[in-house]
Design a protein that fits this description.
About 5% of the residues lie in helices and about 45% in strands. It contains 2 helices and 26 strands. By secondary structure, the protein is mainly β. It has 2 domains: about 25-160, Triple-stranded beta-helix (Sandwich), CATH 2.60.520; about 170-309, Jelly Rolls (Sandwich). The protein has helices at about 25-35, 125-135; strands at about 40, 50, 55-60, 60-65, 70-75, 75-80, 85-95, 100, 105, 110-115, 115-125, 140-150, 150-160, 170-175, 180-185, 190, 195-200, 205-210, 215, 220-230, 240-245, 250, 260, 270-280, 285-290, 295-309. Strands 16, 18, 19, 21, 22, 23 and 25 form a 7-stranded antiparallel beta sheet that branches.
Length: about 300
């Protein structure tokens, strides 16, 4: 075997790639990190949280990679919130230190995470800061936050830190309708925003801010993006719609400008920008509009849609 090649899963007796000294944990972590990234993997119920109006936070089955350490549950993990009041972080802590780290509550009912273990827990902001300093930011995944009043859960906000390399079909879209109006000033880049209707991917891997019109993806991969709008009737100038985002710009039908033609004016001129693009985890996408008709134009119908390829 070449010195740059490594494989895991073989017996640790010294034969093949099994290290003679026993299980090589550093090699396993390096392999897991390179192949699966960091975050909740697309397995089971994605560790979804529930428990509103109760005193028990329930974390569904799932798995995660944390800085190369692996974590899995084959059933729900429950954490009692009885007696708590405030907003708490819900964490997966990979304790790589020689001692315990303190949290507010774990699934086992204790207030510490033992050395060389990964456990789900709720923790205050101050505890989270102390834990992060002790184990390193790369060894903590935030599942979300939970707000509790006198032990009863009132709000659960998931963070959706999915693995950055696994595939998942998902889509999200936002669009305006005829009750909405967007003004586009002459020769001014204007973001398509103020969506009146939106839909989110069920796994939370794509989200949209309907006010700003900005879409965010949580998983790296190839996406199909499609933006379109209908302009009001006008006989002069040109129109443009572009999909813009982190590291790319995709303009109208691969053409920078689209001229207004008299035949378009009965129902207005429709412009479209559509194409495939690679997006990194955390990348943002939006649609922008531009026109040169010499006055303010209006948009009453527009949409932006993102689908994971």
């Amino acid at each position: 075997m070449a010195s740059t090649e490594r494989s895991l899963g073989w017996a640790t007796s010294g034969t093949g790639d099994g290290p003679a000294g026993g299980y090589d944990s550093s090699r396993w972590r390096a392999n897991a990190q390179k192949s699966d990234g960091t975050g909740i993997t697309l397995f089971g119920s994605y560790m979804a949280m529930s428990g509103l109006t109760t005193s028990t936070l329930t974390i569904a089955d799932g798995a995660a990679i944390i800085n190369g350490y692996t974590y899995e549950t084959n059933g729900s993990v429950t954490i009692s919130t009885s007696g708590l009041t405030g907003t708490y972080n819900v964490l997966l802590v990979a304790n790589n230190t020689a001692g315990t780290v303190t949290v507010t509550q774990t699934g086992a009912g204790g207030t510490t995470v033992a050395a060389s273990t990964i456990r789900a827990a709720v923790a205050t902001t101050a505890q989270t800061s102390t834990i992060t300093t002790a184990v390193g930011a790369a060894n903590v995944i935030t599942l979300g936050t939970v707000t509790v009043a006198a032990g009863v859960i009132s709000t659960i906000t998931p963070a959706y830190p999915f693995s950055t390399s696994l595939q998942v079909p998902s889509q999200v879209y936002g669009y305006m309708d005829t009750t909405g109006v967007l003004n586009v000033s002459t020769a001014t880049e204007t973001d398509m925003a103020g969506f009146s209707v939106s839909a989110l991917s069920s796994d939370g891997s794509i989200s949209v801010n309907t006010t700003t019109g900005v879409f965010t993806v949580s998983i790296a991969g190839v996406y199909h993006v499609d933006a379109r709008c209908i302009w009001d009737s006008n006989t002069t100038g040109v129109r443009r719609i572009a999909v813009t985002g982190t590291g790319f710009t995709y303009s109208t039908m691969d053409v920078q400008w689209q001229s207004v033609l008299a035949t378009n004016l009965t129902y207005g001129l429709t412009t479209v920008a559509s194409g495939m693009v690679f997006l990194s985890a955390g990348a943002t996408v939006k649609a922008s509009l531009y026109q040169t008709s010499g006055t303010t134009r209006t948009i009453t119908n527009g949409s932006l849609k993102i689908v994971r390829a």
